[in-house]
Amino acid sequence: MQRLSQIEVRTEHATRRIELYQGDLTQIPQDMDVDLLVVSAFPDDYLTTSTSVVGALSRAGLSVAELAANKQLDLRSSRSCWLSRPVPSGFGFDQLLCFEPLLNGPPEEVVDDVFDFLNLLLLDSHRDAIVAMPVVASGDMGRPSAEMLTAIVEASMQWLRVGLPLGALKIVELDDDRARRLQIVFDALGRASPESVPAMPGRRARPPAPSRWSRGDVQGALDQDGSLIGGIMNRGPSPPSPVPPTVRPPSVPPMPPEDPWAWDCFISYSHEDNEAVDTFINALRSRSPNLRIFRDSQSLRTGSAWIEKLAEAIDECHRFVAVYSPRYFDSRWCQKELQSAIVRDMAAEDELLYPILIVPVPDMHSMYQTFNHRDCTVVDHDKLEFAADELVALLSG
Fold it and tell me: Which contacts (CB < 8 Å, 24+ apart) does range 214-217 have?
């Protein structure tokens, strides 16, 4: 393995690395100490072709099809990924994570699911893991390697800035010529990456607004054969895309200078639970009419920079109210919000999470059970009123 370049992502608590290598993922040296290997595949299709990492692993003696038959965790419906059980020793990694993007959308648009899945794993039991991956979906799926590299780097930088506890991400390209071409794109993405912003005491750093190439710029840098086209090195970062009016949060009264919070509470809920949430918010407002409530909206969950918008809103709230129900845990968007809040809660000095259970959740993940929730099951309005009393008291304290 030869390291060609790296990007450092500075957060409040650590400096994380995204590295580009030229090498063979079936021959990972012991000193790389990789915990998870990411591969990509068509849905339920693990053919051992000559152009895929799945095929290369098979020739090295590891069958992805056999691993798929006995998965440890399968979240393909919500996060396009599944996790294998531990693999036999001698392969240079402990477990395999398979990304099957076509279940949920084009690979370049849903590669974020890999880091969403990793966030769940790392928060639970794999903190600071080392992850290696090829430029996924650029082999048999035929996606342009420069476009996929751009999508991978952008998604990983966003997740790292909002607290993904990943030790390092190692992106590996087997072909030497292609690796050298991808290095130019990788280095340009690193130069265009904004610096992290120091956080206020007790708060996680707010992710900066993106300042990067557009994917059109990167695609324009390579022709169909991957050859370089002149002029790429003189390009500056493109300005951030304007946020459409539909994704802006509602206006709020001016915040007093001494108040570090833009929002008193962020309400995270499944939109199928609107009735209970309406009852709870009405109870809050009846007790404190000027309470600044960020009510998550479907319009916010759109666009390529959604994770930064959500992270900014969560960073600027005093309390994060998670309205637990089976529908809440079935929603990939609710899970993204909750995991981002958990990352901040773990790093902050003050308590952030205020979960409310409105419908029993069978087999709730053990990580979520560690946060004490208020039992408002059967959508009990009296219990919701009591929870509103308690939350207003906490916000005023």
Answer: 214/238, 215/108, 215/147, 215/150, 215/151
| Mean per-residue pLDDT over the chain, rounded | 77
* Higher-pLDDT residue of 376, 160: 160
For Cα atoms 6, 10, 14, give the angle at the middle one, nearest 5 degrees: 105
pTM to 2 decimal places: 0.61
> CA distances (Å), 130 to each of 18, 158, 364, in order?
10, 17, 27
Burial class (CB in 10 A: 0-12, 13-18, 19+), 113: buried
Cβ atoms of 169 and 122 within 8 Å: the answer is no
Residue listed under structure tokens 């005491």: 201
**Among 42, 166, 26, 31, which residue's Cα sits nearest to residue 96?**
26
For residues 22 and 173, the answer to whether their CB atoms sit within 8 Å is yes
Count Cβ atoms below 10 Å from residue 114 Cβ, excluding itself. 25
DSSP assigned state of 364: -
| Per-residue confidence (pLDDT) for residue 302, from 0 to 100 | 54
- Helix, strand, coil percentages (3-state) for the chain, rounded to 5, are 40, 20, 40
Summarize pLDDT for 183-238 with one digit per residue, the tens. Answer: 999 998 888 776 543 333 333 333 333 333 333 433 333 333 333 222 222 323 33
pLDDT in tens, 92-113: 999 999 999 988 888 998 898 9
Residue 297 has pLDDT above 90, yes or no: no
CA distances from 49 to 41, 333, 356 (A): 11, 35, 49
| CA-based nearest residue to 154, from 184, 106, 115, 97 | 115
Task: Please name the residues in contact with 108: beta carbons below 8 A apart, sequence gap of 6 or more.
Answer: 137, 143, 147, 148, 151, 215
Joined together, the tokens standing for residue 87 give 């693999």
CA distance 318 to 320: 7
pLDDT in tens, 112-153: 899 988 888 876 666 788 999 999 999 888 889 999 999 999
Of the candidates 326, 355, 363, the residue with the CA atom closest to the CA atom of residue 338: 355
Nearest-5° angle of CA 50, CA 79, CA 334?
170
Report which of 271, 277, 266 is spatially closest to residue 344, judged by C-alpha positions. Answer: 266
